[in-house]
Structures are given as structure tokens and as C-alpha cells.
Amino acid sequence: MSENAGARRVEQVDEVDVVVVGLGPGGEHVAQSLAQAGLRVVGVEKRLVGGECPYYGCIPSKMMLRAAHTLAEARRVDTLAGQAEVHPDYAPVARRISEEATDDWDDAVAAKRLTDAGVELVRGTGRLDGTGTVVVTTDDGERRLTATRGVVLNCGTDPAELPIDGLAGTPYWTNREAVQVRELPGSLTVIGGGPIGCELTQVFARFGVAVTLLEVGERILGPEEPESSALLEQVLTEEGVTILSGVGIERVRHDETGFTVTLADGGEVASEQLLVAAGRRLAIRDVGLETVGLDPTARSLEVDERMRAGERLWAIGDITGKGAFTHVSMYQGDVVIRDVLAPEGQDGEDFQGADYRAVARVTFTDPEVGSVGMSEKQARAAGLRVLTAHTDLASSSRGWLHGPGGVGLIKLVADADRGVLVGATSMGPTGGEVLGLLALAVHAEVPLATLGSMHYAFPTMHRAISTVVADLQGQLRDGA
Ligand SMILES: Cc1cc2nc3c(=O)[nH]c(=O)nc-3n(C[C@H](O)[C@H](O)[C@H](O)COP(=O)(O)OP(=O)(O)OC[C@H]3O[C@@H](n4cnc5c(N)ncnc54)[C@H](O)[C@@H]3O)c2cc1C
Ligand SMILES: NC(=O)c1ccc[n+]([C@@H]2O[C@H](COP(=O)([O-])OP(=O)(O)OC[C@H]3O[C@@H](n4cnc5c(N)ncnc54)[C@H](O)[C@@H]3O)[C@@H](O)[C@H]2O)c1
After folding, report:
1. Do 364 and 453 reside in the same domain of the chain?
2. What Å distances lie between residue 185 and 88, 196, 204, 214, CA to CA?
3. Alpha helices, DSSP H only, in 276-374?
4. Does residue 278 line the site of ligand 2, with CB under 6 A?
5. Is 78 inside any structural domain?
6. Would the CB of 50 count as within 6 Å of ligand 2?
7. What confidence tens digit (pLDDT) does each residue in 436-451 have?
């Protein structure tokens, strides 16, 4: 039976303090931290400990981008520093992903980290069976667990399956197959111009694959500022990618030569391979939500500021709909850890709950598209008195001297009434890094006057921010 294991592994447990169902980045963090704090914790995972990010998401895709961007930088030698002949070879990328990033999609190291911390890892599919109870289906049968403190759901997502005529059953790629490729196709059609579609499009294009990107919305990276979408579209197009936005897809055909996508206007796009990157499906349908009075078909799980989704039930990660990012999953995990470990009777005012005003995100194309907080459209929809200003990075001192690859922009969204930033975009070769300063400004509600009076080292990429801040201050002075 159960015991307070501390740093030791618990062998057989039916009643524990906390059960974590799904060990994505946040779930892994919660399970490990609570076990290290002395609680009896079971982590339930049906695939790989760590979830999408280390094996099929952030890490392998960023390794691919690192290689692709190196090729692009090498191609810039001719303009900047002489001559370089570039012969792309995907083999080192596939090798790094397999050997360095994923241990050939084996999670033994992550599992050991967890069990060393005192978590009991149960391999199987977890399902709620009423408040505080989880039934796990394992290879050996079923295991019933009672969680006296509660259950944390971190089930994440799977790639969306599009109901396109002819698609099901064909050997198309999702992100999971795309990060495992060893040999590249000659041509690729990508369905979906979100972060996954854009990042992988640039990877494959830079390795010489002829890529056509199909986006149903009117522009790629739809939730980002229109200026970012336009600039990224220009960059990708200049690199040889064909982008078709505002397209409907009628059907997909597959034969021995590859895929043919028929568009709503009758046009056809043929390619050797097809990648579907058109959003995600929450893995909450079969997790027993109905047994605790929640809707398994919901678009996301509603949570309060303590990440509570119900009685003795927390939810974290992509399933909460607060931003499908690893850092959000980890951030929410920290909130759960605080809530579980909060001293008895601690009242709401002392508790630092989840706050999403300044969620930062970066699409790691080149240029990187970093943004934080609200877009201009969101700020206007929120009824704020909005001021915006932007500058072209290539016309800043550093962007200009950077030369090829120095394109980007800074766009700031301010609340004129409070004189603070509520959103910002930083696009450029180091757009994600420059974003750090802006994320702090939005998070801490740093007054524009303060941002306008600080030093911005010359000639940095982040110095471009000072121009935009000055513009906003000018608008405020002019009575905007
Ligand atoms: C290609 C790609 C690139 C990305 N790049 C970035 C990036 O650069 N930066 C970033 O911040 N984010 C990125 N993301 C998003 C990031 O991967 C996710 O936001 C992150 O993994 C957090 O997800 P999660 O915590 O909700 O759970 P997930 O990582 O989805 O993990 C959930 C886990 O739960 C398990 N599970 C589900 N149901 C059950 C069940 N019933 N029983 C047992 N186990 C179950 C699953 O097997 C899985 O291991 C990327 C995603 C993709 C696909
Ligand atoms: N760098 C990062 O942080 C990063 C990178 C990749 C993914 N992610 C996360 O993973 C999540 C999933 O990424 P994603 O790009 O799959 O999803 P997404 O929902 O962000 O984008 C999907 C895109 O596909 C389009 N689409 C949907 N159906 C379509 C159809 N039938 N035909 C053509 N286009 C269609 C949508 O309009 C949208 O532009 C994102 O929300 C993001 O948070 C983050």
C-alpha cells in the first residue's frame, strides 16, 4: 500500500495524494516537484514522458530550424564575406534529432528522472472515474487510484485530423512524422500556415524541397499582427515557397507518384509528400470528464486562476486553451504546485494565481516572430483607447548593417489611458530574444515614460524599440 516515499520509489499504490494524468512538460514538472516535496504522487503516461515538446514538437523542430537557418546564413556569405558553396545534407539533422534530442524516441532518461524524484510512473491510459479517482488501463489490466488531494490533467493534444475527402488512410505527415524523416522528398504541400506549418515550411524549403503552403485563412500566422504575416510571407516567397492563402481544399488523392490536392477553385497542387499542420485536437474526449460533470467535447477545459477545473481536479497545458506553449504548461504547473502545497486556509488574496496578460510566444522562422500580450485587434476589441506604432528593423542601424537576413519589425500596442504597453511584436533575426524586454514591459506595466527614458545600447537590435516608444510618446503628447 501507499507510503510517503520521499526520494524512494513506491512499489504498489492504490491511494495516493496526487495523480497526474498525462506527463507533458507541465505534468512532468508537477509530478516531480510534488514528489520532491514529500507527497505520494503517481504519474500516468500512455506514450512518452515529457509529451509532445521533446519528442515531436519544440525540440526537434528547433533543431531542424537551427540547421536550416545555418544554410541560409552560409548562403549570405557571397554578399558579406567572399564565397561559400552550400550543399545541404539532411542526414546530420536526422541524426541529431534521433541521437541527441530524442534518444530514438525513448523516454528512459525522463522516466528515471521522475522515479528518482519519488514519483510512481504508471504506463497506461488514465481515465477519471468520479471525483479524485483515476482508472488506468495498462498492458496488465486495470489499476484504480484514489487521489486524496486531487488529480492533475495534462493530456495535451494530438494533430487535428482534417475531414478532407480522400485524406484519411493516406500516408500524409503530421508533425510527428515530419520530425522523424531521414530523407527529404523533392516536393511538399503543407496544409496550415500556423506556427508549425510556417516553421516546417522554412526548414524544408531551405533544404531544397519545393514547398507549397496552403492556408484557409486570409493570411499565414493569422493571430499575429498583419505586418508580421505580410513580412514572413514576403520572406518565404523570396525563398521560393508558393503560398496560397484563402484557399478551400476539396479533396486529396494519393497514388504511387505522391499527393494531389484539389482546391475549391478547381486548381490542383501536386507533390511527393503532404504535411498536415492545421491545428490540434485536445486529448480530453476519452478521459472520463463526464464522470465529474465536465463536457468532454468542450473546446478547452475551463480553469480558475488556481488551475482548478472542478472538485479536486486541476488542468494544465494546451487543454486549458490559454496558449499552446511549453512555457505556459510549465507556468500553469507552478500554479498547481503552489495551490497543492499552499498552507491550509491560505486565503485567495495571498495566492499568486495564473495571469495571462503577458503570454510571450515566438515562431522560430528566420526572421523570428515574437509577440507578447494583445495584438492591436485584440486591444481594440477589448475596448481600450489604443495607440500603435511600428518601425522597420531593416532601417534601424543594426538591421541595416546586418545586411541580408536583417529584416524585421517592432510594433507596440499601448493603452493610451494608462500610458503602458499591452502588447508588442518583435520580428527579426533575434526577434525572440528582443522580445524579452517587451515581455517585461507588458508584464510589469512599465510606464511609457520609463521605457522612453532608459538606455538602449547602440547598435543593438533591441535599440529599435526606442524609436517606437518615442513615436508613442509623441502621439500621447499630441493628445492622441
Ligand atoms: C511541431 C511543434 C512545435 C512546437 N514548438 C513549440 C515551441 O517552440 N515553443 C513552445 O513553447 N511550444 C511549442 N509547441 C507546443 C508544445 O509542444 C506544447 O504546448 C507542449 O508540449 C505543452 O503541451 P501539454 O503540456 O499540454 O502536453 P503534451 O506535451 O501534449 O503532453 C501530453 C501528454 O499526455 C499524454 N496523455 C494524453 N492523454 C493521456 C491519458 N488519458 N492517459 C495517459 N497519458 C495521456 C500524452 O501521451 C502526452 O505525453 C510545439 C508543438 C508542436 C507540435
Ligand atoms: N514556436 C512555437 O511556439 C510553436 C511552434 C509550433 C507550434 N506551436 C503551438 O502548437 C499549436 C499548434 O500549431 P499549428 O500550427 O498546428 O496550429 P494553429 O491552429 O496555430 O494553426 C493552424 C493553421 O492551419 C490553418 N488551417 C486549418 N484548417 C485548414 C485547412 N483545412 N486548410 C488549410 N489551412 C487550414 C488555420 O487557419 C491556421 O492558420 C499552436 O497553437 C502553437 O501554440 C508553437
Report:
1. yes
2. 13, 18, 9, 18
3. 326-341
4. yes
5. no
6. no
7. 999 999 999 999 999 9
